[in-house]
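User: Show me sequence and structure for the first protein, then do the same for the second.

Assistant: Starting with the first protein.
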Amino acid sequence: MSDLEKPVQTVDEEVSLATETEQISQNEVENESDQISLKDKIVGYYQDLVASFANFMNFLK
C-alpha cells in the first residue's frame, strides 16, 4: 500500500479521541476526590465519636 492509499485520521477524529481521554482522566479525578471526601467524613465521624466519649467520661467523674 502506498502512502497515498493509507487512510488518514481527520482532525475531528483526533479531537474526539483527545476529548475522550480528557473525560476518562476527569472521571479518575472525580473518583479520587470522592474517595478523599469519604475518608474526610470517616475521620470527622471518628473525631466526633472520640470527643463525645471523652465528654461522657468527664460527665461520669
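Switching to the second protein now.
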Amino acid sequence: MTTTNDRLDRIEATLEKLAEDLTQMRSEQAEMRSEQAEIRRAQAQMSNDQDRGRKWEDRTWDVVKWVGGISAGLSISAAVALVGLIVRLGLNNQ
C-alpha cells in the first residue's frame, strides 16, 4: 500500500508541476500576444507616416512643377521682350 501512496504522491507532484508550467506558459503567451498587438500598432503607425510622407512628396513635386511652369513662361516672355527691345533699338539706330 505504501508504494501505491508513493506513486500517487509522485503523480500528484508531477500534476502540480505541470499545472504550474501551464500557468507560466499561459502567462508568457498572454505577454507575447500583448507584444504582438503593440508591434501591429507600431507597424500601422509607420504605414500611416509613410503614406503622409508620400502625400507631402507628391505635393512638393506638384509645387515644383507649377513653379517651373510659371518660370518657363516668364523666361519665354522675358526672352520675347528682350528680342523686341533689341529689334526696336536696332530699327531706331538706322
